[in-house]
Design brief:
Elements (H helix, E strand, L loop, with lengths): L2 E3 L4 E3 L1 H8 L6 H13 L1 H7 L1
Antiparallel strand pairs: 1-2
């Protein structure tokens, strides 16, 4: 999973959000990490919509 870093937080990359939304992330560990992050990060959750 690629990440974007701002001053205080690490965020999911646009590329990985697109892969997630298209259902292209099939590795369970990567999917679990991404979903866990989305649940705890309103900024990434909003970007994923």
């Amino acid at each position: 999973m690629e990440t974007l870093i701002d001053m205080k937080h690490i965020h999911v990359s646009e590329h990985d959000l697109k892969r997630y939304n298209l259902g292209l992330i099939t590795e369970e560990a990567e999917l679990a990490d991404l979903e866990k992050h989305l649940l705890s990060c309103p900024a990434c959750m909003e970007r994923s919509n």
